[in-house]
Specification:
CATH class of the largest domain: Alpha Beta
Shape: globular
Keywords: Isomerase
Family: Belongs to the aspartate/glutamate racemases family.
Structural class: mainly alpha
Order of helices and strands: EHEHHEHHEHHHHEEH
CATH topology of the largest domain: Rossmann fold
Radius of gyration: 17 Å
Number of domains: 2
GO molecular function, one term: amino-acid racemase activity
Number of strands: 6
Helix content: 40-55%
Number of helices: 10
Strand order of the largest sheet: 2-1-3
Oligomer: single chain
Protein name: Aspartate racemase
């Protein structure tokens, strides 16, 4: 079994989901007391958020690249950035190490493509929805046109993520607000929804969304397990 390297802590709420999902998946596949070989660098999210807010992405790239190198030295055979937003610096992190970076955008994109989805609504942080690195990647790699909510809805999604979910707070009224945003996306022509922040799965499930939902956290975790076990990645199985 290969060792999975996780750059976590952004936030630790979603990193805990990664740890649980990866280990549950390995146990399901191998049985008994099997669990994943994992190395982790858990960052101080407050430090990362300060860099995001001040638009210091070069410094953020250096911080995550250093974490990736530490994981490689610790024996990691692949690297995961356990957050969608920080894939804004994924290219820099990938070039900092010799082991593969498993990119959440790529795994989510090919899962969408396998399901025949062309216009997914993206629910994520403001950085992910507005900076273009996510939508541009999907368009270039998979000919998928990502749809984002309107400005008011983007602000609401961002607030729910940072002010609530990243703090472990899950509110029914916020879940209902996200459901309404998804409904508006469907009305505007979206054919699916990307849960494009790794904390959103704490609030939304397939029982409360109007569109076929693709949980980026689950997709990313499954891809890590597939790599660790040397298996073919079955992307079509990762839709919520």
């Amino acid at each position: 079994m290969r060792t999975i390297g996780l750059i976590g802590g952004m936030s630790w709420e979603s990193t805990a989901v990664y740890y649980r999902q990866i280990n549950e998946n390995v146990r399901t596949r191998l049985g008994g007391l099997a669990s994943a070989k994992i190395a982790m660098q858990s960052l101080d999210f407050a430090e990362v958020v300060a860099l995001q807010k001040s638009d210091r992405w070069d410094e953020a790239a250096a911080l995550l690249s250093d974490a990736a190198r530490r994981l490689e030295r610790a024996g990691a055979d692949c690297i995961l950035i356990c957050t969608n937003t920080m894939h804004l610096v994924a290219d820099a992190v990938a070039t900092a190490v010799s082991v593969p970076l498993i990119d959440i955008r790529h795994e989510t994109g090919r899962t969408l493509a396998a399901a025949g989805k062309k216009r997914p609504l993206l629910l994520a942080t403001r950085y992910t929805m507005e900076h273009g690195f996510y939508a541009d990647y999907m368009r270039a790699e998979f000919n998928i046109e990502v749809v984002v909510p309107n400005e008011i809805d983007r602000a609401k999604v961002h607030s729910v993520i940072f002010d609530e979910l990243c703090c472990g707070i899950v509110k029914d009224d916020s879940r209902q607000a996200l459901e309404k945003i998804i409904q508006r996306g469907m009305d505007a022509g979206a054919d699916s929804v990307i849960l494009g922040c790794t904390e959103i799965c704490l609030s939304l499930t397939d029982d409360n969304v109007a569109l076929p939902a693709f949980d980026s956290t689950t997709i990313h975790s499954n891809a890590a397990v597939a790599h660790a076990l040397g298996m073919d990645f079955k992307s079509e199985q990762n839709a919520v």
